[in-house]
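your task:
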Amino acid sequence: MNASVLAVVGARPNFVKSAPVISALEQTEGISVRLLHTGQHYDRALSGGFIERLGMREPDANLGVGSGTHAQQTSAALTGIEADLIEHPADLVLVAGDVNSTLAAALAATKLHVGVAHIESGLRSRDWRMPEEVNRILTDRVSDVLLCTSPDAVENLAGEGISGDGVQLVGNTMIDSLFRLLEDVNRPAVLGRNAVKSREFVLVTLHRPALVDDPEMLGPTMKVLAGLADSIPVIFPVHPRTRERLAGAGAGWGKVILTPPMDYDDFIALEAEARLVITDSGGVQEETSVLGTPCLTYRTTTERPITIEQGTNELIGVDPEALSEAAERSLTTDVPEKPPEIPLWDGEAGPRAAAAVASFLGS
């Protein structure tokens, strides 16, 4: 076999999910990999050796798409990826997750009759107001190899008429990267820099527009966090855009520790050591479940129900009063002695995904 793969990433989560698959593909005889970063998000945490620690090399190309509306990001990435594929023909395009770059790469490949493999296929929140839901559904519809993290994802695809050999249950590749990076993180040093002790603080990550762009919801939510901070340290890494919204939502927020966005290594160290995590992120639900850290998901839906069924995650809705009650309940409940064992979230999903891709290319 002599096949070429274009791996497209657009934001930090894409790197984390793709790295184990790319690494395994590069070790597969007869397959060459070209790595393209759309630059949809410029993330300083992608520098300083982060990519190398993931086991990846620097991207072969960076489109520098940057920020913008969904249409602007998607169209710029679509145009750039198409040009790259024309200049550097590939047999398959590998994408991950659900950002605008994911959909753009899948569309560019399909229009040029190039195969598509999608890491994290089949996740469904059933909330069409989420741009990520639109991206993941459309990407799955044009994909040839659908790499699923859990059985419910396979069932979701089957319900949409997508089945057969192209659908492969391989596990969660992001967990591969999590395990790899955590091995080398100095957790005591991270705790020390943040002036907290193991299992004696709450970690918060909230970023979705439905919350942060609504002052009537953001203000009361922050008041709940401020109330928590009176009895236990609360660390909230805040995106600059969210910080602007906080400034317009009211006065100060008590003892809540608002920090700049964190390096991924520091963040996962705090995830592993936290007493409780409050989030509206998707990946954090998965990471905390594997780490055994209690997690409250501040959303009405989740595309990762396995984290509730077999993990440590609880879906509480977007309601400040419910958040207050759930946090109090969680903080008075013992943390599991051992993390749950979720099938195929074992640190070996990358090689399984690469084998599925190689099988498709070989056929």
Notes: The two ends are 9 Å apart (CA to CA). The chain is about 45% helix and 15% strand. The chain has two domains: 3-172+345-362, 187-331. The chain has a mean pLDDT of 94.
